[in-house]
């Protein structure tokens, strides 16, 4: 172990143990690594400067505590009986101390949902977890070494390709294990965070809160043996509530006294492959996959310059006439797109 690696280990140990040794952290760390208290003090000063720890008092009365900047990462074997709640509680809960309750709730929801997906679906051997908090935001990484989420969905749901799998994920209610999962976890998690990304096998799916629609990119990120990586980011001053996110996509069933996830927004842009135009009925049918699971479906035509008559007709006349109980709503249409949709509607 070289000096750089040893320094990282010392500073990691300081951050890990300062909660239990606020008054004697220097001597405690010196005993562990067989170094002088002065050497430990140099590391403490660096951590104070970077915001990882803070201190009060002077001399023998000096007391150290965790600062606002907090970070931790671990590699966890995907063994039988692994519980996402236990991992959160034992390894990461300290990172969120002092934050507003709504931020803690959202981060706990996102972390446990994504780790549970890895445990149940990835087919991997390990999951790498890393959470970083600074003065502005919390960033969480969940990375496994499994098959890859888009490849798995394509294979088990008999879809055309991985890009089709991404489009279905963006709608919600997609699961490869309907007996044990509702398919709502990824959808709602992506709407709770300011930034949400899934990176897998050369493709990147991104949902940013400030944007009206989702993005699909070809990715050049290469991480050896990576199956899927999920990145979640939220501003620590956000006022977003889990309840508000659910309410935006659910409907109260007053007669039954329950709520149901039955609304979705489909970014039509995700149906485009390369430079192709949306002109055919087969393209429309691909976009309509699993739409019957919802009662209110919004088709977002943002950034769509034109559509063909057959494409619009398949959605807004043929499918609509066969499914009178589903409300289909087109939004953000330019003049050309609106003309085709109105024609399909018979207006």
TrEMBL record:
Residues 283-337 form the DUF4325 domain. GO terms for biological process: regulation of DNA-templated transcription. The keyword Hydrolase does not apply. Pfam families: DUF4325, HATPase_c_2, HTH_24. Keywords: ATP-binding, Nucleotide-binding. GO terms for molecular function: ATP binding. Residues 97-201 form the Histidine kinase/HSP90-like ATPase domain. This is ATP-binding region, ATPase-like. The lineage of its organism: Bacteria, Pseudomonadati, Campylobacterota, Epsilonproteobacteria, Campylobacterales.
């Amino acid at each position: 172990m070289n000096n750089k690696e040893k320094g990282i280990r010392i500073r990691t140990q300081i951050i890990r143990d300062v909660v239990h040794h606020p008054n004697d952290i220097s001597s405690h760390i010196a005993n562990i690594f067989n170094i002088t208290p002065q050497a430990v003090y140099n590391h403490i000063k660096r951590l104070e400067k970077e915001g990882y720890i803070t201190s009060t008092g002077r001399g023998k009365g000096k007391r150290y505590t965790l600062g606002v900047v907090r970070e931790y990462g671990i590699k966890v074997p995907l063994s039988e009986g692994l519980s996402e709640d236990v991992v959160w509680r034992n390894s990461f809960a300290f990172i969120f101390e002092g934050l507003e309750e709504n931020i803690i709730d959202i981060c706990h929801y996102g972390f446990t949902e994504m780790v549970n997906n890895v445990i149940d679906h990835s087919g991997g051997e390990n999951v790498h977890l890393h959470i970083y908090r600074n003065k502005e935001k919390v960033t969480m990484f969940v990375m496994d070494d499994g098959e890859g989420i888009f490849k798995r969905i394509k294979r088990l749901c008999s879809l055309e390709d991985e890009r089709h799998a991404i489009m279905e994920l963006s709608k919600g209610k997609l699961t490869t294990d309907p007996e044990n999962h509702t398919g709502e976890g990824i959808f709602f998690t992506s709407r709770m965070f300011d930034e949400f990304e899934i990176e897998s096998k050369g493709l990147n799916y991104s949902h940013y809160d400030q944007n009206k629609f989702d993005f699909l990119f070809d990715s050049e990120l290469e991480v050896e043996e990576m199956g899927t990586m999920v990145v979640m980011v939220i501003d620590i001053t956000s006022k977003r509530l889990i309840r508000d996110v659910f309410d935006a996509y659910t409907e109260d069933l007053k007669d039954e006294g329950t709520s149901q996830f039955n609304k979705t927004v489909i970014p039509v842009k995700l149906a485009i492959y390369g430079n192709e135009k949306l002109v055919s009925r087969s393209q429309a049918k691909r976009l309509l996959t699993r739409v019957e699971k919802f009662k209110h479906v919004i088709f977002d035509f943002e950034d769509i310059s034109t559509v063909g008559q057959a494409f619009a007709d398949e959605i807004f006349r043929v499918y609509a006439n066969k499914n009178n109980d589903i409300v289909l709503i087109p939004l953000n249409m330019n003049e050309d797109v609106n003309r085709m949709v109105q024609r399909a509607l018979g207006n």
